[in-house]
Queue: 2 jobs
Job 1
Amino acid sequence: MTAYIIRRLLYTIPIVFGVLMLTFVLFTLVGGDISLEIAGKGATQETIDEIREEYGFNKPLFLAWDSQFINHFKSALTFDFGRARDREPIIGKIKRGVGPSLALTVPMFFGVVIISVSLALVVAFVHGSIWDISAVFICVAGMSIPYLSFILFGQYFLAYKWGVFPVFFSPDLTMAQYVALPALIGIVAGLGGNLRFYRTVMLDEMRSDYVRTAFAKGLDTKRVLFKHVLKNAMIPIITRVVLAIPFLFLGSLLLERFFGIPGLGYLMIGAISSRDYFVINAMTYISAILFVVFNLITDICYSLVDPRVSLE
Amino acid sequence: MSDSENITRTQRPCPSQGAAQLGKGRSLWSDGLRRLRRRKLAMVCFVVVLIYFSLAGFIYLAELFDWRIGPTLWAEQVGESYAPPSSENILGTDIFGQSVCRKTLYGTKISITVALCASFISIAIGVPLGAIAGYFRGVADEIIVWIYSTLSSVPYILLILAFAVVLRDKTIFGYKLTGITAVYLAIGLTSWVGICRLIRGEIIKHKGRDYVLAAMSYGSSERRIIFKHLIPNVFHLIIIDFSLRFVAFIHAEVILSFLGLGEADRPSWGAMINDARIELSRGVWWQMAAATAAIFFISLALNIFGDALRDSLDPKLRIQ
């Protein structure tokens, strides 16, 4: 058991190293020297040189203690990513964005999970009927509508035209007010794929032997469904939920942009339009670290629950 | 992807014609296609997909030979700014008085091109890597698994965006990556992980089978075993995977174009939705509706067709 945890911990090192290599290749080797872009048009040579000095573009790429390669690793491991284009430290910006992002993604995510799991139970209950078939068809249709259309039409009708919700974020709104509509849109947009997934999970369970046994000993469908199927279906459901948690920190790129919520997605969109590689680099790295950590936690939890895991 | 596999497994009434007709044997492909042809809805969807593809091909031809027809004349001003849909302009006009209908048709070309190129890139990377990792195991396997574990620990949308931002307007080997080239490279270079993992797993499973052992015993080279025996035997999985993944590529292109990372000076569905962001508040809904409908129909058709294809070709489902 301890050996498994240690082995699993050691396994995260190459992954973190890989992510650092990936961001280095992407932003330093391919991205290259962007000091001209930062300086803007008509900048003097001195300004450009200054920028080069500050961001370290003038340093050797490899093979020196002060090379860009080493500095890239150093900044990532100390979580000190330097300054964004507007001179604010990137890490401060990220810390500030986490709150609003989580305020949006947490209710959205759990809303989707709770609604789709309960709907999936209902659909599994009536499976094979016309209701089931039409539910699946609606799911597939919902998955085919682009996410952007959900957001735009939702914002237009619910906020702009009918005025049920505020159109944009503003600091004097309470959190519940500005999160309600984007979360609602996110839930509706995410329902199709999730409902279909959970329905499959339920139906898979319903074909197991223990379900047949339960029916054979004369239990009614409702009891089998809630007492037996749901409990066993919780395993894949929980796996999916836990692995989705690190992504919640990222916020929702598009929803935050449309509703002007100052979260991490908004920060990311801003960085894309100003081509601020440093912010994108920091976001990529931090989200990967979060993913690795949550993956580790999940695996360790599994090994606690299921002794077969650590034997591998 | 496993969800759709299981869904269909439950829906489908078990065909027992295999036992009834003990005649001449059929190959996996002809058998699968026969079964596919019997599904009316799937065939309708296939026709819809074909229409989209031939439209894209037709626009390529028209541009090549400089035919002056609707979609290639999208830049022409056909009416006043923001004219609502009428008998003259079926889908109305945009801010410059250009026909929304022509722009939508032209957008097909961009979307299909991006999704096709991205598919080819990710198959070209994912399949050989997956086959090598699964067949040789050892160090090669460790390295390949390491690479894709790394890639999959970064959120997908963030990874695509990072690639698209960096690759955009870069000159690599003297070739400038503009517009959609950067888009399909970004999508292709980031989405081979799924197919690589799938192929690796399948190859590991197939490697111990008799036909591979037979090939080994009569001295086939490793390359021959991989490319002549193993890959053809898992190839249907690649096709199924991509019929479903194509939708994701189309949606990714829309988001990238919307964020201004796509084609800059030609119409695409994502760019149309981006225009519509401002137009909607003025009550101009037709551009938005046209782009949404265009994306919706091809996605729906591909989703349904992909599921049917999976049912028909996946031998695991045939036994039931």
Job 2
Amino acid sequence: MAPMAVEAAEAPEASGLCEGAGGLSTGRKLVPWSSWAEWRFVRDGLFSRFPAAALRRIAAWRSRGALPIPVDVTATFVEIRLRDPFFRSGFTGDDALESEEMLAMLYSMAIMRLVNGFVENPYKKTGRSISELAEAVGIPRVLVDIRHESSHRNLPSLRLLRLASIKAFDWLKCIYWDRQTNSIPDAEVELSLRLHEITHFLKGNASKETKSGSKRKRSEKLISKTTKYIRRLYYACHDEVVFVLMNLMQLDAPESSESSGMQEADCLTTNHSSDVKISKSDMKAIIMKLSEKEPRLLLSVLKSVIEMIEAKEELTNKDELYACLPLEPSKMRSLCSLVLWLVTKIKELKVSGYIGPVHEIGVLSSDKNAVPRFCLAKLLLKLLNLSLIGEKCIIDAAHLLIEMVNDNNVKEKLRKLPVLSPESSSKVSFHPESRTTCNEDESVEKTAETLEMFKLHLKKRNNACLAETVTAEGSFDTTMPEKYNRWSVAKSWTPCPIGTIPCSFSSCAVLPAFDAVDLGVEVSTLEQHGKCDEVDHSEMFDSQPKEMKVESILEISRVSPEHEMSDIPDLAFPLKGRLLVGGVWEKVTEEELLLIKSKMKILL
Amino acid sequence: MAGARATPTRTPPRPSSPAVSAEAVVPQDWASAVSLVSSDPNPPAVLVCGPKNSGKSTFSRVVLNALLPRYGKVAYLDTDLGQPEFGPPGCLSLHVVDEAIEDLLNPTLREAERCYFFGDISSKRDPEAYLNCLFHLYDHFVGKYRRNENEMLPLIVNTPGWVKGAGFDMLVEMLRYICPTIVVQIRITVQSKNLPDGVFWLDAGQTGPKMININAAFHDASNRSLLIQKDSCGMRERRLVEYLKQCFPSNISVSTNKELAYALASLPPYQVPFSDVTVVHLHCEVPTGEIWRSLNATIVGLAVSSASEADRSIPYCVGLGIVRGVDPQKGLLYIITPVPLHRLQSVDLLQQGLIEIPTALLQVRGCVSPYMSTNVLHKISERDLYAG
């Protein structure tokens, strides 16, 4: 035992200062969870009656390292309780531990690890006694005594240990779980606070147009400081920031006088906008201010707006069954005009040089303004796939985007699209499950046209940048042997932090959607077994074979037309004549492509 | 000739510790030990052992340089997981070196002849697996470089500094398996920290190899051995950073951590479908539903499961990589590694271990990994600690 302890590496726990609550702390620490939402999921699980899923997640965290001691020990206590008949009231299973001796061992070991985990480092640092330190930290005395008893004397009684475990559990909840909960930054609150500050300054600026320069300078300084902070927020909690921005943008749509539909999504922002109300024009000014420093923010907002329209469309399609058509049109219109506004701004930024479309971002280009063309192309594609394509704003926006993606030419092509006819509002939305058979032909036609357009556009681009394709990866791919290669270089990559993947539609990063897949498995299991008892499904989760997940994933990538479509632009460079089929780059001939085109029905 | 090589006056780029003076001067007893090793009529198998920070690696480098002129190539068995000589941390590897080591004070990265990923910086978690990897490496050496009488290579085995308790037991096993012809033991002034004197791994009556005892290289004024105090955690991080810099061609400048972090974030990674690789965790049990979550933004060993080779062989590792992203929708893993694509094609096994990714690589302005969180509560604050 002793020599092991000598060699034992210290747990990777930094002993920095505790960061105060409220706002983002400046210090960062490696944690095993990818978001506070994940942390909350575990917290809620551990303190619920069904901790199985939370315990599994903690097992995954353990395998990553850097697990905070309180999380580790809390999980241990929960796990031991699950096996202790005393706490298992009602459950009888084969994993219950009947041996009192064994249970006592488990409890005392957990308590020992708790006490040591909290005071061992400071003990070495300060040389003060364990019990002294424990008192300073606030560890209940009984736990310190049990640590001493069980390591040097007799094993304490199970009765005492159970009592102590309850105490330890409560103490951990208070000292770690509750305190951490309170110090999680709330990006949404923070952001709307800052946004209000900026509006305030902006308003001040406008009114003080004629006033002395020093005051204006001061408020300009404050604005840039706040903008900087918002940028930090944007990097840290990207999704929340875009979400808040979106909500504020919509809030004050000019048509809002007729719409009382504000109540649903907007409660959040109205809650916090205590004093100043941010008008839509203010919001636009702020977004422009932000995008001067962070031009790609516009792409993210645009993507979210388009997604919001998609979601609304889907909702409308469903709602049609109930034949109630509420205030949606005005809202939709304001969203569409927002799309146009955003695209116009992107265009303006491009003209003024803030955004420079590039083909592929270089490995070391720290150029914040570079926007890969394929991002714009994918956004355009998304836009074209909206069933609202008939809307004037959307068409205009699409035209502008096309101009940016590839200066002219395709514009002509798009004009010829039958899609632009106004009656298309009832067209199919993009989601396969919401499709209707009646207008399938129409949509096939539409998609075929789009495909044609892209092919044309690609050919042109391909010729134009033939010289550029002699990059390292490009040259490799052309020499690739015909045999199956499991590894390849990722295409259309945009820089994004380690642990995230690039978003296909904007140049921001997204966290891998682990939950989406989990959910899929869960749902299918539930359907299979026809049960929805919570205990059962947490148990079933355990026995889920991995293949099932993989299968469903493969299915997604094979069936989803989005993938086929969105990957076509990638063919432009090195993988010419190849098509991504089920995750593999298959060689396809021109005839095959044409065949696919004519059989678009299969895909949709 | 050993002496000539052993007194370089070059200043190392990063002095590993203030205790080490800028130049490495080889002490007298070291020089005679080296000449004893290099004058052996047969290609020797030298095992260097001794407590932590006593200078085993430095001595091994000196010996390697001394053996090179005569044999042209020298095999080097690297068994120190925490501070490997030629590989990244967490790896056990066999190298065949044909080029002298210029920097005697710092390890350098070189391609391994054969490598196994153990996945931790100490063997304590799994002594059995550790020894198994080691024996496989030795067998590989014997099979390749000891068969033919004319092409026998000398072997240097550098051992970890864990010489007490379970560490001692492992060292004994190692010595019994390898049967070196020369054992060099480095001893320090604090006798209790030293290995037992003599052929401690053999039963009474067995004849042992040549034993050479030398003292640790550095001494203070009263001639007590001065151990090279190393910031081993920082060294490991730098080692991984050096390793990952190989992802970029030498014409791209990634000298600072910040530049490297940004370059890693923007480098188009390799992608591989979930279905084409098996994932194993070498030291933990990961629930099946949590595999991808567990893997994201961690360091993995890229291994080849050895279906084609002899049955009892274990998967060998072609290098380390960072799982820089996971896309569950597309079923793809994105991995950054300096291993070239053509070598990757045979990789079908990802070995997850407990080698931590250097945090400096996860946070660069505008590109901070989601795993680097703000507002993390520490278990104990200084305020609590000194209160009352």
